[in-house]
Amino acid sequence: MSERKHLPNVVPALLHMPDPERLWPSERPAHHAPRFLLLYGSVRERSYSRLLTQEAARLLQALGGDVRIFHPSGLPLPDDAPATHPKVQELRELVQWAEGMVWTSPERHGAMTGIMKAQIDWIPLTLGAIRPTQGKTLAVMEVSGGSQSFNAVNQMRVLGRWMRMLTIPNQSSVPKAFLEFDEAGRMKPSSYYDRVVDVMEELMKFTLLTRDIAAYLVDRYSERKENAQQLSARVNQGAL
């Protein structure tokens, strides 16, 4: 603790040493199956981002996950309808339910689609006292019609960080997606398919590792300080 005297800008009582017992609790509660919400970024009749999402859902279910897919058809543009819109409410309820997410977008004009971005934009950073995405895991994937690209997954990583999510290191990018799915909509065997398996395995592992301690992992000094100041202001209001 003596080292803290050299940190004049820090409130010592609010600077917490990492607690191994909270990071690696000796007992973890018996849990439901890990819960995953999957979003995709196209409403075409034959949407390759939807087909890839469905492959991811099958893999997560095979790994023991409880999976929901949000279908964006009918979701209004951000701010073009009230938050009470049924599709907005459905999306937000699923986000709060989930412990991990998968975002899959086509690449259009070198970027994720507007449909993908609209879904993310409808997810607020806070819902009252709840931060619906903070500390939850995220995997990102993309499909493209041409050569392999990583523009969409890179953009979604930025958004995942902004949403305070734990984005896993692995990712999937499927080029010339029209060649990678059969007539029934199933992904053909390939190195691209194997990468999707890798990503879902990794997402499951990170989710199991972090979901019980997510709140502790994202517990922040700056927020503890802000909360302490707000509490002090409330307590001292009577002396004003």
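The record above closes out task 2.4. Task 2.5 opens with a second protein, given below.
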Amino acid sequence: MAAESADVSAFPFQMPTEKTLMTSDDALDQLRHIARERVFGRHVGSDRLIQAGLDALIAGVESPSLAMLAGLLRSEEPEAPELFDHVLEELGLLFQPPADPRAAKWAMAYWVAGQIADGTLDPAAGTHLIWADIAYDLGYPEALAPLVHCAHHLDGWEESWGVSVEELNGEAVAAAKQFLSERTTAEAGG
């Protein structure tokens, strides 16, 4: 089950509810988030790029290419990735992961753990990503072991275990926070 939630929708950005309007800071955060998703190899559909542009425009963000991105028609969707990159560049939001593949995997691990810790990413989906997409490529380093352990538990959870999914999610959040607090140690040993 966790594997299903860890694919394309693994990084759902939590939008403000309909009752609250998105602020320009919210819109910029959304653009940053999508930029990292794309850089870390996640598929982000053109429809999401266009919607993010529209959200930013409505929130008052200004960029020469933003209106063009937000106004793309369905037949123009193939233009969205390039326009999105222009918007990021104009707003100074371009994100470049480290050139070294191992360092880039560590950067992705910290980004995913940060989302688990702040509640913007489901703990089961996030720990599964760390387990399947990051820890494996890094040779299962000790620093990621608690998060991989949480992924195993959340992936195979059964009611008969006598522990709730909520408790396991709480353990995953705590493991993510612990991992983030030990960042320099993990990088030096990773």
